[in-house]
Amino acid sequence: MELIIDRLSKQYGSKIAVDRISLGLKAGVYGLLGANGAGKTTLMRLLCGILKPTSGSISMDGSDVSTEEYRSKLGYLPQDFGYYPNFTGEDFLLYMAALKGLNKLQAKRRTAELLKVVALQDVGKKKIKTYSGGMKQRLGIAQALLGNPRLLILDEPTTGLDPKERARFRNLIAELGKDNIVFLSTHVVSDIEHIADTILIMKDGELIYQGKREEQQGGLEQFYLKQFEEGNHD
Fold this sequence. Notes:
Blueprint: E1 3-12, E2 15-25, E3 28-33, H1 40-47, E4 55-60, E5 63-64, H2 68-71, E6 74-77, H3 89-99, H4 104-117, H5 133-144, E7 151-155, H6 163-176, E8 181-185, H7 189-195, E9 198-203, E10 206-212, H8 220-226
């Protein structure tokens, strides 16, 4: 299993949001760091096929990002995922499972499994509008996992999680990264430090660093801040 990103660029008018990024990713957790405006969300949307690249290509095991075969292996949690406030958590997951093509039996089984995985089994029959921010975020993580994705893309997934939930989330991601590609973007350096096998840093649309977690001396936060000493971010 390999995700190939080849000279990928995305340009809006004169602004280059993603600038000729090339990566080859195998199973593991990849932590993407970068200041606001670095191009992280644009890169993630390109990887999900939501945006079309200006140039370059993305493929997984030979399937282009534009194909159904690629999409069937993909799970995505956007920064602000849409939900229906009057749905219960269970109904929302069943609805999303149907959109992903699971039959009724598979959908019921997977929904029950995932409500347990994200510790929402006790509130699965309650309406989403009654959920806290952290509970909604956990529901978002559950919907991203519905189709047993081989490629999981998470944009700021720990927003709204308390320390206990954050620890549970880290354990879940570390487990998923053993057999799958997990691409995780966050502002929380400690989350990346705890669970990412490989650290990626973006600045002004470019990938300025790629390395193993243990390679940074003096801790990741210190290393990360060094990349931005000029204060050059928007």
